[in-house]
Amino acid sequence: MSSTQEARHKRARIAVRVTAHQDALIRDAATAAGQSLTDFVTSAAVARAEDTLADRRVFRLDDEAWAQFTEILDRPAQRIAELTRLLNETSPWDDELRAP
């Protein structure tokens, strides 16, 4: 389902209680961003949720995404010259540790 189709089929609701100050702040920010209150709050909450879950060990992938992911993992490793050079450079803190 495309995001346009998904947007037309929104059925879930989230209700939150906020202070008057928080309400005014969020509404002002939505207006400044040129978004509806719903779009602003949803995009902010989704971005925060994605950031929060980004470093987790559990990945939720559909079958197609899982197939792509495992295909990438199964590829033979490739040496990247720039990365090899970078990893062989002396780091600034190594020099500090060697100083008498």
TrEMBL record:
Q: Which domain of life is it from?
A: Bacteria
One of the GO biological process terms = regulation of DNA-templated transcription
Transcription regulation as a keyword of this entry, yes or no, is: yes
MF terms (GO), sorted A to Z = DNA binding
- Keyword annotations: DNA-binding, Repressor, Toxin-antitoxin system, Transcription, Transcription regulation
Q: Which family does it belong to?
A: Belongs to the TacA antitoxin family.
Name this polypeptide is given: Uncharacterized conserved protein, DUF1778 family
Q: Which organism is it from?
A: Tessaracoccus bendigoensis DSM 12906
The opening ranks of the lineage are: Bacteria, Bacillati, Actinomycetota, Actinomycetes, Propionibacteriales
